[in-house]
Amino acid sequence: MVNMILVTGITGGLAKDFDKNLLSRCVGIGRSKTFDKCPHYVHADISNKDDIQLIVKYIRDNHISLSSVIHMASCTDLNMPDKEMLSLNKRMTENVLTLTQLLSIPQIIFISSPSVYAMPEDRKNIKEEDVPVHQMSAYSQSKVESEKMILNSDISSAICLRPKAILGPYDRLIAPKFMKLAKMPIIALPRKGEVYINTTDSRDVVSAIQCALSSSVKRGVYNIAGDVIEIKTLIRHVLSIFNMGYRKIISIPNLSFLGKPFQILQITCGAHQTLDISKAKEELSWKPQYSALDSIKRYKEFHS
Fold first, then answer.
1. In this model, does residue 282 exceed pLDDT 90?
2. 125-265-190 Cα angle (round to 5)
3. Nearest alpha-carbon partner for 39 in 53, 52, 55, 28
4. Share of the chain above pLDDT 90, in %
5. Global pTM?
6. Contact 190, 251 (CB under 8 A)
7. Average pLDDT, rounded, for the chain
8. Which of 124, 133, 154, 220 has the fewest C-beta atoms under 10 angstroms from its C-beta?
């Protein structure tokens, strides 16, 4: 019997980059009514405690043996009040851990976020332990608390991955924002875009998940990131690949006092933030294969 993998948030963009072999082993959970990419799918809301028994019943009725759960479901709605977002994301994690107990699943892989490192200052080669005590958003706080719940649980193997700035054809967050910026007649960014970050191709995130699935690691948190690239250079790549011509890039001051969108812009684009991925290379035998340029070219091909 093939051991299957329970996957929350499978209808999101990242799972669409799973290869056929990985998808063939997935039991997906999602709020979309249907999803035909994997052999088993349960229409359920992982944040709803009442839906847990629905998932358990499906697994048992179909005699499915589960070896792992990949927890990708997460709320990123910036318009949601902070307390609600924190509560919702924590509740999802609590319910996933309940499922691991009820179904005797020995491994959990949690897709966390490098937003846990966010600070209004330059930080380079950030290691996994460099998490500030005070978080800058409810979203990042929810990731910190979810990681703690998972790592302190009784499950045999718990691995948390923190992928930085995921770029892929199904991306609805990073790439669309850079596309929107590139279309402006004049591009205004903190520090004129002369800030270094990592980007990560979605295929590299999937390969990190596959490395984690086959790993013997019992407990671990890992940075997952690709290229170190200047934001200005990333925008120039977008302009070139999409034949959008030249755009002047100017510097804007810190406008965080104007509200959440400007606070996020300052946090994400106003300071150097690059990750040290040596731990993932050493312990998970993972390394990135694709550049930011590869990601943007693939995004164009998909949306042409």
1. yes
2. 80
3. 28
4. 77
5. 0.94
6. yes
7. 92
8. 133
The answer for 9, left when phi > 0, alpha when psi is -120 to 50, beta otherwise, is left
Q: How far apart are CA 230 and CA 74, in angstroms?
A: 28
**The residue type at 297:** K
CB 132 within 8 A of CB 119: yes
- Tell me how far the alpha carbon of residue 78 is from its chain's centroid: 16
Distance, CA of 182 to CA of 74 (rounded, Å): 28
Distance, in Å, from the CA atom of 126 to the CA atom of 85, rounded to the nearest integer, reads 26
Say how far apart CA 14 and CA 74 lie, in whole Å.
12
Which amino acid, residue 157? Answer: S
Q: Strand 228-230 to strand 196-198: parallel, antiparallel, or no bridges (unpaired)? A: antiparallel
**Nearest C-alpha neighbor of 117 from the set 127, 129, 131:** 131
Which residue bears the tokens 């400007």? Answer: 262
Gap between the Cα atoms of 139 and 251, Å rounded:
27
